[in-house]
Amino acid sequence: MAWIYLVVAGLFEVGWAIGLKYTEGFTKPLPTAFTLLSLVISIGLLGLSLNTLPVGTAYAVWTGIGTVGTVVLGIVLLGDSASALRLACIGLIVAGIVGLKVLSPE
Fold first, then answer.
1. What confidence category does residue 106 fall into, taking pLDDT thresholds of 50, 70 and 90?
2. GO molecular function terms here (predicted)?
């Protein structure tokens, strides 16, 4: 169950990271509320996953999911660069996340 919490926490991290762009400096109430709610849920689920997962592994996977998801949505929604080298670097992050999962004692 801890891994499920962690993956969902990572997805909510993507939500608040992308949400920050839409708050326009926290001047838009609805995007701001969504962003803050996503942040609270993300941190809460990360905390629950830490009941059984090692902190280093959980934090690295959480930030990795957040990073990869934010970059992908930045490309799709915001027109960020999708150069081959940038995508290769994202692939390395994904490989690290998978490696941490495979090598985790939980």
1. low
2. transmembrane transporter activity
d(CA 58, CA 100): 9
3-state secondary structure of 57: helix
Residue 82 has pLDDT above 80, yes or no: yes
Write down how long the chain is.
106
For the CA atoms of 69, 24, 43, 2, the dihedral, rounded to the nearest 10 degrees, stands at -20
Rounded to two decimals, what is the model's pTM?
0.86
What's the rounded Cα separation, in Å, for the pair 59 and 6?
9
Residue 81: φ, ψ to 5°: -60, 140
Would you kindly state where each structural domain of the chain is located, as residue ranges? 2-103
